[in-house]
Amino acid sequence: MATSSVSKGCFVFKPNLKKRKTSVPIEEYFNKGKNESEDSKLRFETYQLIWQQMKSETEQLQEELNKNLFDSLIKFLQKSHSGFQKNSRDWGCQIKLREIPTAALILDMKHFLQKLCSQLMDCHVDVESKEQEKDIQKKIHCSMDFLSSWYMNVTQKMDPGRPGKKRTSSSQWQSPPVVLILKDMESFTTKVLQDFIIVSSQHLHEFPLILIFGIATSPIIIHRLLPHAVSSLLCIEIFQSLSCKEHLTTVFDKLLLTTQFPFKLSEKVLQILISIFLYYDFSIQNFIKGLQLSLLEHFYSQPLSVLCCNLPEAKGRINFLSDNQCENIRRLPSFRRYVEKQATEKQVALLTNERFLKEETQSLLENLQVYHTNYFLILRCLHQFTSSLPKYPLGRQIRELYCTCLEKNIWDSEEYASALQLLRMLAKDELMTILQKCFNVLKSSSEKQLGSSAKRIEELLAQFQSLDAEAKEEEDASGSQSKGLQKTDLYHLQKSLLEMKELRRTGKKQTKFELLREKVVNFIDGLVREHLLPPETQPLHEVVYFTAAHTLHEHLNAAPRIALHTALNNPYYYLKNEALKSEEGCIPNVAPDICIAYKLHLECSRLINLVDWSEAFATVVTAGEKTDASSVTSEERNEIIHARFIRAVSELELLGFVKPTKRKTDHVARLTWGGC
């Protein structure tokens, strides 16, 4: 094959099929190539099962949100359509004759808006060819009269019934309006939109039109893009789905703050996912992808993740654990701490007796599930108490409180002490409302571990209610006392009020309500100290908690310069091809051409001689290769290598590592990242 002209030719070099590796099943990667665990396939299947359950839960949540918004939009369309009917006056009287009904959708997810548009635009227009479609579009832009006549013809074909026959509200629309959807209003041409609205309003009586604006920012964008003379022609109604933060809270509630899924995230991992969401993209889809990556990494890196499943299944798997897996349990830091707290005889049995170890493991996993059940219930109760406090010392969202509880003993923080002080100042009505919410939270659970706590809350509510009669008597007494104080002069009145305030501050004389309020605060504080212990205190928490925050950070918070340098300097890091392994400072000849050229350019100064660079590239590429006289000539071989070199240099130039220079002939300038 002749490649005499590099600038005028396009050359194809067939790869060596003998070097291709056969595909490996995905579950085999869980072995890390060292056969460290004999149950990698089971771990992979467990990962797939849990992820499918989580995915199904998120899809169901999204469908509910879509349904609510879609139903509201349909009601708006029906209500808007009734304004075009002569016999309907309730909605038609609210809009002017030339006002176009307009729905503004405030959405945060573009794919949802596209799906919604595809459902609404399920219309059937017979267009034989693209050219005919373009002709129709030209007529539409030129004349609205054509649209009006087209609409009249279409509606007559759709409803050929008698004109005098009336339809009920449940029947089909007599003359359905034309719904125009602008899925991205911010990027729409402003002048065209303004002209279209003005012209359409003049023909609204013969061409009923409803506009649907897809807005990704704020409704105020309508008034920024359209002047008052145009926006006044629109009868706008706003429809808004859940905000990103509210959607994230719902996802937390469905996937993380539940015992339905055994998999859990550590505080640092959770903070990474939340930070990316709040400070980068506000994408629920990316948050769920990060959760999926965490799940995959956990089952990949933790051999004992085979026990991260529902409790009955986990107990069954424990009975079939191998000796190596039993040793993995003994190596867990949390299990070591647990063994150290046991009596000497039990320590020996846990470290030497496999059967006793498996029985104890089953018991510990059962305790871990009870811990999580109580943990999430008390977490929700604490959130009910603290979410409405001034300045939100423990956070306004439950995810903030959850991260704090995962990190440390929350009762040791200053924010928790501040929250307790504010709770001691709540009024009776507020306190009773919160207690009722906590009672409902505890009663909503089918578990019976916190039944005594629910009963105690019920007793406290009854005591508050019994204070009503006594409170009336105290009010009457305080009223008569205030009347007596009013008879004194201002000096004695101020003195008496200061004395009463001092007595309340020092706590020498507390009312029954204050004593009862103190009992409530102490009761909640006791529940928090008993049940909101950090996960690290629980034996075998490593089985269900993913803690490798640095691994997740490398994948999600990718630094382009570092990632690119790693890929070019060490292609094995990403390709995982054994042939690419090499000692430090060596360049394997089987590496991609761009990697060879990149490593050679690192050894050069600011100005690189293309001739020297090309010769070094050819030396590396041809190293260790056996020459075959019957295949290609030496000249053709050199031309092929030269073409590969030119392509590698072009790719490096595209990536910003080198650029042409006029300072020297046959040289290129080496660049720093982003330099010029």
TrEMBL record:
Residues forming the Origin recognition complex subunit 3 insertion domain are 318-550
Q: Which GO terms describe its cellular component?
A: DNA replication preinitiation complex; nuclear origin of replication recognition complex; nuclear pre-replicative complex
The subcellular location is: Nucleus
UniProt keyword Nucleus, yes or no: yes
Keywords from the named record: DNA replication, DNA-binding, Nucleus, Phosphoprotein
* A single GO molecular function term of this UniProt record: DNA replication origin binding
Q: Does the keyword Phosphoprotein apply?
A: yes
Pfam families, sorted: ORC3_ins, ORC3_N, WHD_ORC
Subunit details: Component of ORC, a complex composed of at least 6 subunits: ORC1, ORC2, ORC3, ORC4, ORC5 and ORC6. ORC is regulated in a cell-cycle dependent manner. It is sequentially assembled at the exit from anaphase of mitosis and disassembled as cells enter S phase.
Q: What is this protein called?
A: Origin recognition complex subunit 3
Query: In which organism is this protein found?
Result: Phyllostomus discolor
